[in-house]
Specification:
mainly alpha; two-stranded antiparallel sheet
Length: 186
């Protein structure tokens, strides 16, 4: 279809633009407009945005790759290492977006991600110790949505795996200990 070719061509040009707002708009459009057949035409352009200087662009690139993975896991199978890299991004919003993508991949096959248990535990420890910016707090609870996602990930990785479970016990105990029972959200 000529319209699809035109859209893909326009998105490719926008993803190479110097203006980060245009790149962000293109990444938003990619999430909504691209189907399984057109992913290969845009995949490398989106992957290139993972190293952009603006954290918003990196976050949207992770979200776009997450959408690609949902639509065509076979085409995106080689991107697991990139998601692992983005987990260590200096910006918490990029890391948080990566957690969502990794959670879905872990649901499919947890054994491929057991090596990330120390990283997830370390991130959870940082969250609980209020090392993220205050903007991630919700009613004085440090990044509750990130904590919930991490706990779900750790539950999947710890299921039926004693060594992974033992690695997370001390941090999970700390999470429970720091939970303020007198402070209710809402």
């Amino acid at each position: 279809n000529e319209l699809i070719l035109l859209i893909v061509n326009t998105l490719q040009q926008d993803l190479k633009n110097d203006n980060h707002l245009i790149v962000c708009a293109a990444l938003n459009a990619v999430c909504k407009l691209v189907n399984a057949e057109t992913i290969p035409a845009l995949l490398q352009n989106v992957v290139d945005q993972l190293s952009h200087s603006k954290e918003l662009v990196r976050k949207k690139a992770v979200i776009a790759l997450h959408c690609f993975n949902q639509r065509s896991p076979a085409v995106c199978a080689h991107l697991q290492s990139r998601f692992r890299q983005m987990l260590c991004d200096k910006d918490p919003s990029v890391m948080s977006a990566t957690l969502c993508a990794l959670y879905e991949m872990i649901q499919v096959d947890p054994t491929q991600f057991r090596s990330l248990v120390p990283s997830f535990v370390n991130i959870l420890k940082q969250v609980v110790e209020h090392r993220l910016p205050k903007t991630y707090d919700y009613h004085r609870v440090p990044a509750p949505f990130v904590q919930i996602k991490l706990l779900k990930i750790l539950a999947l990785l710890g299921a039926s795996n004693k060594s992974s479970s033992e690695h997370m016990y001390s941090t999970l105990t700390e999470v429970l200990r720091r939970g303020d029972l007198n402070n209710t959200i809402g």
